[in-house]
Design brief:
Layout: H1 4-11, E1 12-14, E2 25-29, H2 40-46, E3 51-55, H3 72-83, E4 90-96, H4 98-112, E5 117-124, H5 142-152, H6 157-160, H7 163-181, E6 195-200, H8 208-212, E7 222-227, H9 233-236, H10 238-252
Parallel strand pairs: 2-3, 2-4, 4-5, 5-6, 6-7
Antiparallel strand pairs: 1-3
Helix pairs in contact: 2-10, 3-4
């Protein structure tokens, strides 16, 4: 059994030194097939106003030898345990796409009873939890999975042309799609914490109207922002996203 420090080192990446002790902690949850390093640029932009941590799911990069976790609830349980071992207790959770589902389930668990203080949730590029959109990517062959990734424009095409890289990353991608496509929302109390939602105005995965439905998941404040771009608008609108998150961190705190 691994200790709390080792677990944090596996699950949590920190790319920059934390700012003042009173600053909140922003925990970032990647998309399906994504890794902690996806949020490195964002961590640099937000470094002066928050401690930015990025979650590393099993089965990729430095956790390549591990089996992917194919259940959103199990991922949330594992991550909550790790977050409860952090020295800083005031958290804002930020998840993109699949990561929004994981972050939402972690938020629910915090509010059910945890030593952590949830300041707010930021959900990006994802329909509200009760809305089921099964794209059935988990049933596709490798060519179909790659075509879906290209459609969403979330991975450098040069990587998708390298057979060795494809073989290396495909188990994690398939595991993540199984997790998110089999996820089923269980009705429960709305969050007490505020929710901010970010979405690209041309996102083929979620419309602005569907993003608005996150409003029903909170009794706190709700904010919806749209950005030019598709599912991975945040890669194209880095400065604007960083500005929005800075505003959310200030408002939540």
């Amino acid at each position: 059994m691994i200790n709390a420090l080792t677990a944090r080192q596996l699950w949590i990446h920190r790319f920059h030194a934390a700012p003042r002790d009173t600053a909140p902690t922003l925990v970032c949850f990647p998309h399906a097939g994504g890794s902690a390093s996806y949020f490195r640029p964002l961590a640099g932009a937000l470094g002066p106003v928050a401690e930015v941590l990025s979650v590393q799911y099993p089965g990729r990069q430095d956790r390549l030898s591990e089996e992917p976790i194919t259940s959103i609830p199990r991922l949330a349980d594992e991550i909550l345990t790790v977050l409860e071992s952090l020295p800083r207790r005031r958290l804002v959770l930020f998840g993109h796409s699949m990561g929004a589902c994981v972050a939402f389930e972690v938020a629910r668990r915090i509010e059910r009873g945890s030593s952590l203080e949830l300041l707010g949730l930021v959900a990006s590029g994802r329909t509200a939890p009760p809305t089921l959109r099964d794209t059935k990517v988990r049933h596709m062959d490798d060519d179909g999975v790659i075509a879906e990734i290209r459609r969403l424009n979330g991975t450098d095409d040069r990587l998708l042309l390298d057979d060795d890289i494809i073989r290396m990353i495909m188990p994690a991608i398939r595991g993540d799609y199984l997790a998110v496509e089999s996820y089923r929302y269980e009705p429960g109390p709305a969050l007490r914490s505020p929710i901010s939602v970010l979405v690209g105005d041309q996102d083929p995965q979620v419309s602005v109207t569907e993003a608005e439905e996150w409003r029903d998941q909170t009794e706190g404040g709700f904010t919806l922002r749209t950005f030019p771009g598709g599912h991975f608008y945040l890669a194209e609108q880095k400065a604007q996203v960083a500005r929005a998150l800075t505003e959310d961190l200030a408002r939540f705190s």
